[in-house]
Design goal:
The protein is an all-beta fold. The chain is built from no helices and 15 strands. A four-stranded antiparallel sheet has the order 1-2-3-4, with no helix packed on it. It has a four-stranded antiparallel sheet with strand order 5-6-7-8, with no helix packed on it. The relative contact order is 0.12.
Length: 174
Amino acid sequence: RFPMPDEAIKDPHTMVFSGRDHIWFTAQWSNYIGRLNKRSGEVEGVFVPIDRARPYGIRLDSSGRPWIALLGTNGLATVDPETLELEIIRTPQAETRLRRIAITSDDAIWYTDYNQGFLGRYEPAKGAFTEWKNPSERSGPYAITSDKQIITSATGNPVIAIIPMVRLSHANCH
């Protein structure tokens, strides 16, 4: 049992292991991103100062930096593992609602836009976004993962899309 450092952190949601000494997690309804030190048991919380941001999906890039989908707003968040400084990056469209993310070997952050039906990519090194509209108007993309290709699934739709990276060109992006 690991007590939370703040009574406001009540709902650990999604977790990811750092491969080192930490477990990072989101606390969706509490508006926190947390980190548990597996050796000491210490839990640290990083508050997201956007009303109802709802930190949801979380993944680590190749340097061990966590990236978080903010379901309640059009943002990605990242936390510096050394300082716990929070950075929020807004997507191009205010209506975007990110649910899950995947990170490819080039450290691009891929996300599903549950609200509008887009697949998106953020390249941190360039600060650049690219988005592709899903073919179905009511797709509600939910889950996403990667394995030399991007794989998504949609709520209310039994289709799983497997998209080879070479098919994602700028010709069909938003």
